[in-house]
Amino acid sequence: MIKPDFETKPFSDEVWTRMKGLRRERYKLSFEAQNKGGLCVTGFAWGYLPLLAGFGNFGNPSPGTDFTRIAREGAGSEGLVKFVNLAEGRGLSPVCGAIAAHLGQVYAGTSFGGSSGNKMMPDFVFQPQGCHAQYKGGQICADVLGLPMLIIESPPKNTTGSRKYLLSQLAEAIEWIEKRTKHRFDDERFIEATRFDIHSRVMWARVCELMKAIPAPMSYRQAMSLRLPLVTYAYSRGTAEYMDILYYEMQERVKDKISGAPFEKKRLAHEGLHPLYQPDLLRWPEEYGAAFNQGEFMMAFGSFRHTDEGHRIPGQTLEERGIELKTRDDALWALVEQRYPLEEEGVNFDSEERRLLHFLRMVEDWHIDAVMVHLARRCAALCLGIYTRIQDVRKAGIPVATYEASEGDPKEWNEARVREDFTRFFESLGLTKIGTFDEKDEDKDG
Amino acid sequence: MSVFDKFHAIVTNPHQYPQEWKSNTSGKVLGLLCSNLPEELFYAAGILPIRLLGANEPENITRTYIFQPAFCSFARDCFAQALHGRYSYVNGIIFSQCCPHAREVFHDWRRHIPVDYNYEIYSPMCLQNPNAKEYLVHEMEECQKSLEKWTGKTISAEAIDKAIVIYNENRRLMAKITEMMKADAPLLIEAEVAEMALAGMLIDRDEHNLLLVEALKEVSKRTSVVRQGPRLILLGSVNNNIELIRFIDSLGGRVVIDDYCTGNRYYQTEVIPENNRLAAIASRLIAKPPCPLHDLPERRRITHYAKLIDDYKVAGAIYTMQRQCDAHGLDYPAIETFFKEKGVPMLKLELDYTAPVGQFRTRIEAFLEMLTAI
């Protein structure tokens, strides 16, 4: 038996229970809200959700009520593959795996039912931000279901023009929804949801920042589960409170040197969205005494600011900034400023130079030894500039390896090949497979 | 030399004209990675805007720079030309941010191929949004400042007016040409029209106008020849492979219109003067038939196709897709459904640098037989 380098301990029952409770609540809410006459939207609806909360509880089965479950079980022909094939059979090709998986569910008519047996029908497709394929995927969803589509676009340039453009779209979206659905918008609810949303994201950014500690108090795999309420439920009081609890516990773990993984012989970053149907891959480094500690997709739902030197720092809550939201306009502006921080005026978020700088600083600040990049086939958005960035990161002296698959299409998954890529990577870092170790950390991943 | 030979020469040697223009004028050549750009502004700056294209030939030089399974073959082909040094005369590149494949080329080009100037205009995805125009105008104002800085010259209102006049004239002349294809027995074949269209993207637009006038005269002297075969529309991803059109023609298909951004679509819609000249140019970009990525949330391309089908009496459609072009891949189900409902059968072909002659021959022949039997 090998003795672990670091003490590991599961997160408290309170953290896991809260996370799972929120996940369940959000799932149930989707059905209940519509049964009680509330709004229901679909699409790839992850942004500006406080706006919808202004209309009361709403259903949001996007992308598909059972997406996570299907993703998990998707390695077999009865799972995710079935939906990807169905989408391809409808002529959708080439298209990224995640979009195909979602649209396959829409074509199959299962997207808005889920395993609970309940059914719901969205009022419209809500498509805020996203990549080109998400916009177009949302449009296909609208075609299939015969629904109108509401798009909120936020250009990548942090300028006065972008702020004005986003603000006008958000303001008009309220009128658009009121007119189309006859639901009444409540400023108080909107203000509260905005406050919680910003709070939740700031706290998650702080959680991510604590991952700089050695050992890191949470594994990347755990992070992918524990962040779940942020995806579609960040605007709720429950998520804001949950984030406070998680942050407190993370601080305690840092203080007590509790690790998310038994070893950190090498601290690794995972770049790109991992294959959603193969989440265990995020624990593979542990077999070699290493751990994934960071990656863009962990930070994605946090509210960060960036210094001129490219360092990432958590933003501040509205209370900390002394801002009290009193009116609808205040809350709209808060959402706009969350996307376009005034202190980063003039920045192009899509600039490759900026992405590289942030990446290098992330490696430095989070004490990352090497990086594994997922090259997602058919996903142009995630692979933009990827080869050049890899070259630049290598030039900076940071080892980088890659593996090819797809975030949503298990047909692109070749475990033997990916295992080889990982093994080669670990061995190139001087790691060897460790024997069994005294593992106290039960896998409590949600 | 027939004017059609001139168009053919420009298209088959796309680098010659810009190189000679540069050497004769000492002007700057600006490479365009998209057709949704305010070209009048570039022209007014005294710049020669040209569309950056692939060569439709196999390559493996981009493998080090571009992750092949995620980016379209046209984008890779285009960047391959730059890596081969065939665009060494280009002083700058510009991109209208929307298509990630073109963006990859933009990014790789500015990173790996030395150019004096690069610029990225963000053209809203949702051009149908009433607020998009104001944003686009703002982007164009910023672009104008950037061009003025690069060239060291102010772009005057008069120069923009003149450019608008020249480009509008160009669109009118091309409209006359394509209009002729509506006839039962057109005096032109589509490959000629496609070459005329593509040539315009590679030379000074004023000169292109002169050539088009000459072409119209030449065509008027032709005798009508009734050709057999179903009337076809070509649509899909960006495509500068004119040999493919000739090939389809050689198999008995009569291509009468296309909807490529390197073809007919590029010339659609004139600039209608407004007090703010940039706003007028923006209005055109918003009003013209869109590419899939700008066709949101309402599907306006379908209305456009309905008109093309009726006006050109289209019997069949060939949807050509560049490999990995998800922009057109995501639009395909809706477009195919529409054509089906319209009673116009569609054949989908995938291009990957080149067109596989043997396979395409079999498929196109079968498609044409099917159309004839209808």
Describe the structure in your own words.
Chain A is α/β, with parallel strands linked by helices. Chain A has two domains: 14-184, Rossmann fold; 191-428, Rossmann fold (3-Layer(aba) Sandwich). Chain A has 17 helices and twelve strands. Chain A has helices at 13-35, 49-53, 67-73, 80-89, 97-108, 132-145, 160-181, 187-210, 220-226, 228-233, 237-255, 296-299, 328-339, 352-365, 380-383, 386-395, 415-428; strands spanning 7-8, 39-42, 58-59, 124-128, 149-152, 258-259, 267-271, 291-294, 304-306, 312-314, 370-376, 400-405. Chain A is globular and about 65 Å long. With 374 residues, chain B is of the alpha/beta class. Chain B has helices at residues 3-12, 16-25, 39-44, 73-83, 100-112, 132-151, 157-180, 190-200, 205-220, 242-250, 277-287, 300-311, 326-341, 357-373, and strands at residues 29-32, 48-51, 92-97, 117-122, 231-236, 254-259, 316-322, 346-351. Chain B has a four-stranded parallel sheet. In chain B, strands 6-5-7-8 form a four-stranded parallel sheet, sandwiched between helices. At the A-B interface, helix 6, strand 5, helix 7, helix 15 and helix 16 of A face helix 5, helix 6 and helix 13 of B.
Produce a short descriptive summary.
By secondary structure, chain A is an alpha/beta fold. Chain A is 46% helix and 11% strand.
Q: What radius of gyration of chain B results from the CA coordinates?
A: 20 Å
Let me know the largest β-sheet of chain A: 4 strands, parallel
Question: What is the name of the CATH class of the largest domain in chain A?
Answer: Alpha Beta
Content-based structural category of chain B: alpha/beta
Describe the biggest sheet of chain B? 4 strands, parallel
Strand content of chain A: 5-15%
Number of helices of chain A: 17
* Biggest interface, CB < 8 A: A-B, 54 and 49 residues
